[in-house]
Amino acid sequence: HEFSDEQIVDALANAAGIGYLITRNATVSGAEGGCQAEVGAASAMAASAACELFGGTPRQCFAAASNAIAGLLGLVCDPIAGLVEAPCQKRNATGVANALVSAQIALAGISNLVDFDQTVDAMYKVGRSLPFELRESALGGLAATPAACSFCQGCAH
Questions:
Q1: I need a labelling partner for 75 at 20 to 30 A (CA). Which of 16, 35, 66, 97 fits?
Q2: CA-based Rg of the chain, rounded to a whole angstrom?
Q3: Has residue 143 got a pLDDT over 70?
Q4: Please, which residues bridge with residue 135 across strands?
Q5: Rounded to an integer, what distance in angstroms lies between the CA atom of residue 11 and that of residue 154?
């Protein structure tokens, strides 16, 4: 799309601002909030930056970030064998697609019923209500399947 260096820098600053707000008001830690916090925050940051790059207003950028979080709300963190290779890398790829669609929705003028701040708050509350096993412990979700347990020594499953 031939964006200028200045446009890229502005979009990165936008993403950083979204990340700061999520970190300040919730969490980006999978251990505290599940993958929705890690992948969701990254997706929200990318959505807002993409929205700005394509001419979105600040309101639309916040809407794009909200859309991205809403699209991944409740996503558990269940690294197989305690590593981030699976399913984490694939979830981050899903987060990229989610970010671009979220930006397109906002740019199309589709408004949200819940604003960014409330969406971040909801994400934090959902994450805190996830059982420990679904928050980066490698004890639940895909990490607790027989196939995944075959990668660990002494797995109890």
A1: 16
A2: 17
A3: yes
A4: 77
A5: 46
